[in-house]
Amino acid sequence: MPLDKEFILDNVGEYTEEAVTWIREELSDKGKLYVAFSGGKDSIVTAKLIEMAGVDHQLYYNDTTIEPPAVMKFIRKEYPQCIWLRPKHSFFKQIPKLNPPLRGAKWCCFHIKKIPGWKIKLDQRVLGIRWEESSFRKQLGRSQLVNIGTFRSYYKREQNHMHYHPIYYWPTWAIWEFIEEQKLPFPHLYDTFDRLGCVVCPMRKRANMEKWRKIYPSYYRAFEKACAIWYDRRTAQGRTMAYSCVEAFLEAWYSHKVSWYDKEFRDLKEEKEKE
Ligand code: SF4
Question: How many angstroms is it from 237 CA to the middle of ligand 1?
Fold first, then answer.
């Protein structure tokens, strides 16, 4: 699906002017805004645009416990005004209980990413997400009502969130030109990676994970240790695992081939497929 022509602008100056005007028109009367800040290039640009527009806001950084240390150091130094949020239990601590996350079972995005932010009582939220990033994001739009619905027990509030995406239509080149033009600092990890985020993540391709492993091997050691605890715990409970040992499981996990943890479920599925 190509982007509508009206959202394609000629230069970064036009993108900047359009975004600042949009923020002032849409968000000036919304009270204090929660600005999700990850330390990545898109949130750096979003934070600057919000500042330029002069609207009331607070930056929040969600430390998922598997964030790149270089990014955390960058935020501490360059954005001391940013408030840090953390989940109750770390990613590694939750694996033995909730299973290693999979592409189709990303409990971590909920437990370590969303819940800490949901506890903040600011419902008007600004995020640096962009149309071109994924087919899922192409469906969101520049403003989005987020129904907290079934998660209210975590959120402990009735009200839903409103999400705003000021840089929704920005292409990547405009993001980097803006950073250069405004002389904004950014994490040096961009010399190696196009995108930052959680160091160990089921959404990463294997080759990309290997690059991260070289920089932060202790994160991968901790992940494998947590998986070993999880595997031992399940076998001690009498479950028959779909993989003969944790090493075989990890090999499948890194290759994105895991669809079942337990042998009985895998066999059941194979039987159904034969019918
Ligand atoms: S980005 Fe990846 S590792 Fe981080 S919370 Fe989401 S799925 Fe989990």
Answer: 28
233 & 171 share domain: no
Which of 191, 214, 233 is the endpoint of a domain?
Answer: 191
Judge contact between 27 and 33, C-beta under 8 A: yes
Same domain assignment for residues 40 and 131: yes
Instruction: List the residue whose alpha carbon is closest to atom 2 of ligand 1.
Output: 201
Token pair 């405004």 is found at 182
Burial class of 219 by CB neighbour count within 10 A (0 to 12, 13 to 18, 19+): buried
Q: At what angle do helices 246-254 and 217-236 cross, to 10 degrees?
A: 130
Looking at residue 63, the DSSP 8-state letter turns out to be -
Domain interval for residue 15: 5-191
pLDDT in tens, 243-272: 999 999 999 999 999 877 887 777 777 777
Q: Which residues pair with 144 in a beta bridge?
A: 163
Binding-site residues, ligand 1, Cβ < 6 A = 64, 101, 106, 108-109, 112-113, 197-198, 201-203
What 157-164 contacts at long range (C-beta under 8 Å, 24+ apart), as own/partner pairs, is 157/121, 159/123, 160/123, 161/123, 161/124, 161/125, 162/30, 162/123, 162/124, 162/125, 163/125, 163/126, 163/127, 164/23, 164/26, 164/27, 164/33, 164/124, 164/125, 164/126, 164/127
Instruction: Count CA atoms within 13 Å of residue 176 on its CB side.
Output: 7
Is 84 within 8 Å of 61 (Cβ atoms)? yes
Structure confidence by residue, pLDDT tens digits, 30-55: 999 999 999 999 999 999 999 999 99
